[in-house]
Write a structure and sequence with these properties.
Blueprint: H1 3-15, E1 25-26, E2 32-33, E3 65-70, H2 74-86, E4 91-95, H3 101-107, E5 117-121, H4 127-139, E6 148-152, H5 161-168, E7 174-176, E8 178-181, H6 183-188, H7 192-212, H8 217-223, E9 224-229, H9 234-253, E10 267-270, H10 281-298, E11 302-304, H11 315-331, H12 345-367, H13 371-395
Parallel strand pairs: 3-4, 3-11, 4-5, 5-6, 6-7, 8-9, 9-10, 10-11
Antiparallel strand pairs: 1-2
Length: 410
């Protein structure tokens, strides 16, 4: 009798006639899970060649970017940026709509740009803002090729914008110029697999447009940056970043890149506010820690955590969020092992489930002509799921500590 069969026989005895299926569950990400996984009984696992396993984790494995996102005036951005950098951050995300070269000068006064990453977000066409940023760099005696970072902007509905952006800013050799945004979908209620499918569809659309415009798959891969949102499902989160890398490797290789590094995906994870409570920042801090752990164990390249105080966060709350990174590195030593999830039958099975589900959703999107042709319909589906989850939290059917159970008193 196998180990699993022996275990199940004992469990059935202890259940006393109750159905074994009562031990099975569907988690918050709509994935089915069993109570035990063993070498002789487990779900599907990814068929990954040993030589390709390195693509399931960030590279280099010992480094991740401690990113702090800021949305403020140029003067306040500078104050918050200096606090973050002095507190150990090495990446800044800045909302820079309508900024002039002088605004960038104000916001980045005292910042040594070549030793950090800077990520600029624009609500529309990024070129006016990027031109202003280039002028600022020139005035500050920086060359664009020295600066590492990315830009985030909407491009799906503009057939020419991607090509214009990568052509105009190709001298930003260390910038990822093509965003593939799953985060906004996650924030509206997308399940993990749907968010992955949407991000993959955006990445594939970008690959298609850029290669059709004469750029190589290697160029395109180096420009694409995926952004994903975290959730409370600890093990699912670990598994899905690995699954995301596996699926991107599968897509990019269909374009026959020449460089080995093109098979690596760049993943930024951001803790969403959906799981946080305005009334319980202490519990928020705990939840941010578990979400950070799952993202880092899953192998993300960069991680952004909001302050646990959602309304006008204090300097102390911002420091707490940064220190999650530092504790997980300097004390928990999460950076010392490559792909620690590998070999766990449970995590490997979750990874395969997520890959299968996200791939099926991705193929369905492609069969409908790509995301540009079905984005509105998919958004509505995601918002409906988000509303359903909110109602479940409100009713107490879905437990969220600090929001509908074990809330602070007074």
């Amino acid at each position: 009798m196998s180990g699993y069969e022996s275990w199940k026989k004992q469990v059935l005895k202890e259940l006393g006639g109750k159905p074994f299926d009562g031990l099975l569950r569907t988690n918050a990400e709509d994935l089915s899970t069993e109570p035990v996984y063993t070498h002789d009984h487990h779900g599907p696992v990814l068929a990954v060649a040993e030589s390709d396993r390195k693509y399931l984790f960030r590279t280099p494995a010992s480094e991740w970017e401690v990113r702090v996102d800021i949305k403020a005036s140029p003067a306040d951005t500078n104050r918050l940026a200096m606090q973050a950098l002095e507190g150990g951050a090495n990446g800044l995300g800045i909302q820079a709509d309508g900024w002039s070269p002088e605004d960038f000068q104000t916001a980045l006064e005292g910042v040594i740009l070549p030793i950090i990453s800077i990520h600029l977000t624009f609500a529309g066409n990024p070129m006016p803002g990027m031109d202003a940023f280039r002028d600022y760099l020139s005035a500050a005696s920086y060359h664009p090729g020295e600066i590492r970072g990315s830009i985030h902007y909407p491009w799906l509905d503009d057939a020419l914008l991607l090509t214009e952006v990568v052509t105009r800013y190709r001298d930003f050799a260390r910038f990822r110029l093509v965003p593939a945004d799953g985060l906004s979908w996650r924030e509206e209620g997308a399940a993990a697999a749907r968010e992955m499918a949407v991000a993959l569809a955006l990445g594939h659309e970008a690959l298609h447009r850029l290669t059709q415009s004469g750029f190589t798959a290697d160029d395109a891969s180096g420009w694409i940056a995926f952004s994903l949102g975290t959730s409370q499902e600890y093990f699912t989160e670990i598994a899905r970043y690995r699954a995301m890398r596996y699926l991107w490797m599968r897509i990019i290789r269909s374009y026959a890149p020449e460089a080995e590094c093109s098979s690596h995906a760049w993943l930024t994870a951001t803790a969403t506010r959906r799981s946080l409570s305005a009334a319980d920042h202490h519990t928020n801090l705990l939840r941010l820690t578990t979400e950070a752990m799952s993202a880092l164990l899953g192998g993300v390249n960069a991680l952004s955590l909001p302050a646990p105080e959602l309304q006008e966060p204090s300097a102390a709350a911002r420091r707490w969020a940064r220190n999650i990174h530092h504790i997980l590195r300097e004390e928990a030593r999460l950076h010392e092992v490559v792909d620690p999830a590998a070999g766990s039958w449970y995590l490997e099975s979750l990874c395969a489930q997520l890959a299968q589900s996200a791939w099926a959703d991705f193929i369905a999107i492609e069969d409908r002509g790509g995301l540009a042709y079905c984005s509105s319909e998919l958004r509505n589906e995601v918002r409906e799921r988000g509303s359903r989850i909110a109602a479940e939290v409100e009713s107490g059917k879905r437990v969220v500590i600090g929001q509908n159970k074990y809330q602070p008193k007074g």
